[in-house]
Amino acid sequence: MEQKAKKRESSCEDCVFYDYDEEWDTYSCQMNLDEDEMVRFLTQKHQSCPYYRYYDEYKSVQKQN
Hints:
Layout: E1 18-21, E2 26-29, H1 35-43, H2 59-64
Antiparallel strand pairs: 1-2
């Protein structure tokens, strides 16, 4: 029986741009979009975020070794 690989949906919790904002005491997306990009992002229907990048905290440690 052949298994198909599931395409991973993006999740903000493990995205590079998802960060804690001390002023607001909450997590939020820190992706800087210009006005045109913001309009495009808000008006299009996405199944997953086009700006999502997986955050691997161990990646920098691996490069040090």
